[in-house]
Amino acid sequence: MSLKIEQVHKYFVGEVSGIDLSDPLSKSEVIQIEEGMDQFGVLIFREQFLSDEEQVSYTKNFGELELHVGSNVLKGNERRLSLEFADVSNLDQDGEILKKGDRRRMFNLGNRLWHTDSSFRNIPSKFSILSCRSSPKNGGNTEFSFMPAVYDELDEGTKQEIADLITEHSLIYSRGQLGFSDFNEEEKQMFKPVQHVMVRINEFTKRKSIYLSSHIGKILGWEIPEGRDFIRELMEFATQRHFVYAHEWKPGDLVMWDNRQCMHRVRPFKDTGEKRDMRRTTVAGTAPTLVSAT
Questions:
Q1: Residue 290 lies in a domain
Q2: Each residue of 106-126: pLDDT tens digit?
Q3: Among 3, 65, 253, 294, which is least packed, fewest CB within 10 Å?
Q4: How many domains does the chain have?
């Protein structure tokens, strides 16, 4: 069976069939998936029960891996997975469910805000690849918004207003929205803000995207309250339901998305003692979104 991609949402998202990701990919399959990412922004692969090693191997088809350091508040002895993985589960290093007041759990609640992975890095990520090893029966969906479609529906005045804007991103900003401010001096330095353009262009499709994230705390040259209010308005516009796809996870699902074109968030799930084991690998970006800010 050959690889096929079927669109499942009005604007984006393709479901892929005819491929086993545990096998090495051919050059043509890599090209098809890359083209699918450019076109659809999100690709869904069903019944892909990969080992950690197989997921890492698959990810490397699309570029260098982004190691998951400088993106969390884990101490050295608290890591459950290797550095190739972002652990977006509700589990501690022993595979037990994190207690409600655990600092790691409080920090990870920021993933429930609309965001773009690694926009808090000077060189933001390219693709995220998330595999579901176990999931609660109710809740815990991941929602995606397709930012080229969002940009297309902006009025011309707003497009002109955002064309040259530079924004400042940090994990401190996003966690601060939830009242998390428990950062030590080392973490404050690690999460030092970085700058990005607000409008990005896909080099293959040439479509423009609006680059938004809860990690944004400032617009350069704007007063902070005014800038944050403007970002809030844009976020509300960008997350209207007709722009959004909600993925209901099943074990064996692997979902891959383009951080240059998509925002996402995880939805809450009831604390019923169920384990949510989700393991993300990330393809690193290749350049900053701007060379320098003026």
A1: no
A2: 999 999 999 999 999 999 999
A3: 294
A4: 1
